[in-house]
């Protein structure tokens, strides 16, 4: 048997009758399919525990996920191989805590609200693998490291040191947030996983067979940045927000790495180092996007990769074949030194403009 618990929010205010109705339908259906459990309602939050045969729980949960009466549904735990029911006599007991003003119930109400909030916070700080493990009832700390073929993605901002020197820290944070948002959206929507932000660098990975997705996500990032630059005010640093992207593929070790005090769920391996090196090569090759031969081999026919040559990546002995695609987005208009110069001049322009706006002391 399986036991599943989740938390969700009312999608609108629900009347007492509507909640009773959920209870009635649930009890009729659940008695038929041998499902038992409890549904708590409190302050616009549902907390439900469902227990029964695996297929019955899966099919009910997929119906519940589609139900328009609630949203932001977060599975808290899904336990397998359950041998004993916790609510054998309840085909679905609905308990509306809002109606009960007993002070003893107050901590439970607060607990439910806090649980929903902290789970949502955890979701934005944690790797989806870690979250999935928690939701499936595993302790993520027990996840064993495993070898996986991955496409590693590295992107970082051109002349970031110059930007941090010349801009206010709040402007730098704003710029980083815009860059990270664009990257995360594109990567996640193509099935990738953002591993970490390291200063101005984004590290992410895609499954080894998703070369098309990795490339498509990279191009979407470059497109979005172009739009952002064009739409930014004349004195905005966003006008010179350029990045380099490097992709490499290989076998990496995926899992928990760190000390017993602080752990990170990440990937380690040669492909990670190579992708980071590829990203730095974008400067030398005057391209905004470059990738390794191993990535090229996984691409479908819709792409026309261009071979830029054989290069020795910094700090590596082996020679690597480097590719890009010919696209207005990937080709730098001028060489990298000129681009850096353009960024520098723009930052000086911003500084002058900011200085002219300072009130003068008399
Ligand atoms: C918070 C919540 C909990 C629910 N729990 C159950 C349940 O335990 N069993 C059930 O059959 N339907 C439950 N439902 C209703 C289902 O989403 C769905 O509307 C219902 O199963 C459809 O039943 P029908 O096919 O008999 O019309 C729940 C809905 C909500 C919003």
Description:
- Helix 6 (169-189) packs antiparallel against helix 7.
- The protein has two domains: 2-140, Alpha-Beta Plaits, CATH 3.30.70; 144-355, Nucleotide cyclase, GGDEF domain (Alpha-Beta Plaits, 2-Layer Sandwich), CATH 3.30.70.1230.
- The chain is elongated.
- It has ten helices and 13 strands.
- The longest helix has 22 residues, at 336-357.
- By secondary structure, it is α+β, with helices and mostly antiparallel strands.
- Strands 6, 7, 8, 9, 10, 11, 12 and 13 form an eight-stranded mixed sheet that branches. A five-stranded mixed sheet has the order 4-1-3-2-5, with helices on both faces.
- It binds flavin mononucleotide.
- Flavin mononucleotide (FMN) binds at residues 22, 25-26, 29-30, 39, 46, 48, 60, 63-64, 67, 69-70, 92.
What characteristics describe this protein?
362 residues; Alpha-Beta Plaits; eight-stranded mixed β-sheet; five-stranded mixed β-sheet; 10 helices; 29% strand; elongated; binds flavin mononucleotide
């Amino acid at each position: 048997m399986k036991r599943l618990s989740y938390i969700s929010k009312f999608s609108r205010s629900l009347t007492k009758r509507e909640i009773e109705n959920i209870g009635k339908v649930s009890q009729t259906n659940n008695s038929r399919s041998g499902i038992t459990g409890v549904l708590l309602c409190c302050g616009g939050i549902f907390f439900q525990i469902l227990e029964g045969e695996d297929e019955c729980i899966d099919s009910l949960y997929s119906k519940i996920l589609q139900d328009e009466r609630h949203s932001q549904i977060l599975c808290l735990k899904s336990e397998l191989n359950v041998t004993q029911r916790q609510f054998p006599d309840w085909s679905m007991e609905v308990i509306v805590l809002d109606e009960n003003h007993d002070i003893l119930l107050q901590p439970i109400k607060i607990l439910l609200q806090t649980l929903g909030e902290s789970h949502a916070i955890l979701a934005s700080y944690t790797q989806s693998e870690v979250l999935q493990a928690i939701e499936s009832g595993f302790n993520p700390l027990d996840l064993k490291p495993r070898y996986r073929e991955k496409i590693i993605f590295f992107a970082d901002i051109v002349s970031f040191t110059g930007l941090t020197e010349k801009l206010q820290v709040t402007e730098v944070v704003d710029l980083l947030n815009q860059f990270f948002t664009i990257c995360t959206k594109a990567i996640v929507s193509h099935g990738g996983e953002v591993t970490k932000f390291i200063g101005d660098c984004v590290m992410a990975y895609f499954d080894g067979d998703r070369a098309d997705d990795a490339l498509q996500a990279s191009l979407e990032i470059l497109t979005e940045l172009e739009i952002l630059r064009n739409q930014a005010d004349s004195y905005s640093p966003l006008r010179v927000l350029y990045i380099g992207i490097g992709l490499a593929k290989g076998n990496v070790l995926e899992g928990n790495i760190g000390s017993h005090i602080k752990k990170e769920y990440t990937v380690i391996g040669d492909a990670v180092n190579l992708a980071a090196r590829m990203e730095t090569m974008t400067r030398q090759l005057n391209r905004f996007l470059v990738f390794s031969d191993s990535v090229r081999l996984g691409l479908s026919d819709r792409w026309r990769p261009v071979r830029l040559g054989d290069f020795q990546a910094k700090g590596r002995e082996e020679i690597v074949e480097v590719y890009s695609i010919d696209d207005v987005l990937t080709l730098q208009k001028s060489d990298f030194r000129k681009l850096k110069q353009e960024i520098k001049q723009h930052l000086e322009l911003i500084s002058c403009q900011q200085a002219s706006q300072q009130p003068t002391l008399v």
